[in-house]
Amino acid sequence: MKKFLFCIGLAAALIGCDNESNPTYEFPARPDVEPLPEVKIEAVKAEAYALEFTITPQNATECAYLCIETDDDDVQLSAAEVLAQGVQAEATESKTYRIENLWEETSYNIYAAVRSGDRSSVNAIKMTTDVAPAPSVPEGPQTNPMYIWVDAAANFPDFANSKDNIRRDLTLAKQTGFTDVVVDVRPTNGDILFQSSHCDQVKWLGAWVTGGYGKINRTADWDYLGAFIEIGHELGLRIHAGFNTMVGGNKSSLGSQGVLVRDSSKKDWATTLNTKSGFVNTLDSDETTYFFNPNHPEVQEYLCNLLRDLAAYEDLDGIILDRGRYDSMLSDFSDLTKEQFEEYVGEEVDFNTDVMKAGFTGTIDAEMPYEYKHLKKWLEFRAKTIHDFMTKAKEAVREVNSTIKFGVYVGGWYSTYYDVGVNWASPNFNTGTAFPRWATMEYKNFGYADIMDHMLIGAYASPGSVYGSSEWTMQGFCQLAMKYTNDDCPLVCGGPDVGNWDSSDKYTDEQEHQAVTNSVKACYDACDGYFLFDMIHLKKGDMWQYAKAGIDEVKESL
Question: Which residues of the chain register pLDDT less than 50?
């Protein structure tokens, strides 16, 4: 009976509960939690020397990637290591990246890491570069390089506004047997024919045309250098950019142009000449080409910026600096250079008493006695200036393009090349012993052949002086260049100027034609290849066939 009553009581209690409203449980508030940063990395493309991949970050404020050559899959990097050592990447959206200058047929681990606040994550993939394709082998015997130069002004009537003319003449160069073309993209007015934000584009150049010397305007807006690269590579030619270096303007009967003419604030960039009438800024002189002062640090940085932009043409095969020198023995005698030279020799200097007389333009012989206290040290100082600039210029180019060839054109007359402040020999060639009249024993330290990947030697002798072993013969210039550079530059090629070699009209057309043919093998056999200046002379004199005969002779001898 008691059990029954208990059950009735329990039932009544339950019924009473059903009649009351059930209480609602409220969860305590929780702080907002940021989503975890994540990153995906996906392979896109593998080439012989490059890899492409896509990084997709999520919930991140910082992102970076890191590529490491390794075959070890156990190598693992933390997100912190990648973020600290890697290349910064886009943190808010997916993006494809490319890494170049890698080794062919090599495995790489590519890491991507992201961070948001104090939380981070990392991901990785493994990619392997392809095998480089075997280079195509052209038909017929292969020679060392055969360079032909394309002066900007002389060829401007044909090339300024016509890609068809560029293709026509590059085709002729290829058929003749030339392998390398140097296209002048910074003529002596100092403006440019390539893409850069640091200098004005060439608007016009003066050239000899039918009826006299005239102004050739450039109206085309396509990339001049880009056209040569595209067309030249289609034809199987290597394309190099010729760069007139220490020039900033010029003047002629057609007018004046260049940065030194346009911008009066840069007048101190111009060289100061030691003339008979005193120290004169070149802009105030009778000079027609306005040289920079190579010692001016702003000039050097300006030129390096232009070279960086030039090196950004990733398909460009090489850069060759022309006029990478002082204007003449009269240059540079500015106050800035005087201060630098005084620091170099450790004492105050009077240029005309201690270095040379005003207006001197000769060679160092009896006119320049040893009594000039600092003459030889002055020549050494100038050579050092150019050597150091060339080092800086190559470094600027290499910052942008690690594979492009860097080099110079120089005149082959080394025995008097001190007059423009250049020592283009090897630092292992003892100039002071070979030329004690003008070179110190330290002069050799500023030879720059070892800086260069290739050098073009102007073997500018007359048509009657193809053969020989001394200066002012084409063969001799090339042989001596090999001696002076002492194997420090891997490629030294020399040859003639086939248009300005007979100013007195001493030789017949037939003799000049034969000299073109003979010059090829004479220079080629004496050095590492051949160099001809300039394309315009082959075109105007219809001398392609004579150059071809010389190149064919070289091929037959291989």
Answer: 1-20
Our CA dihedral for 360, 272, 187, 495, rounded to 10 degrees, sits at: 30
Question: For the segment 445-458, what is each residue's pLDDT rounded down to a tens digit?
Answer: 999 999 999 999 99
Q: Which residues make beta-bridge pairs with 55?
A: 41, 95
For residue 27, give Cα distances in angstroms to 33, 226, 515: 17, 69, 101
Q: Tell me, what amino acid is at 152? A: A
- Integer CA distances (angstroms), 211 to 84, 125, 433, in order: 67, 68, 52
- Identify any residues that bridge with 18 across adjacent strands, giving them in sequence order: none
- Which pTM value belongs to this model? 0.77
- CA dist., res. 497 & res. 543, Å (int): 13
Q: How many residues does the chain have?
A: 558
Measuring CA to CA, which residue among 514, 513, 509, 547 is closest to residue 530? 547
CA–CA distance, 154 with 198 (Å, rounded to integer): 25
Q: Are 521 and 475 in contact (CB under 8 A)?
A: no
Cα within 13 Å of Cα(526), Cβ side: 29
User: Residue 132's pLDDT is what?
Assistant: 78
Q: How far is CA 315 from the centre of its chain?
A: 12
Whole-angstrom distance, CA of residue 542 vs CA of residue 539: 5
Q: What is the pLDDT of residue 422?
A: 98
Contact assessment for residue 65 and residue 41, using Cβ atoms and an 8 Å cutoff: yes
The C-alpha atoms of residue 420 and residue 26 are separated, in whole angstroms, by 91
| Run of H or E residues at 96 | strand 95-99
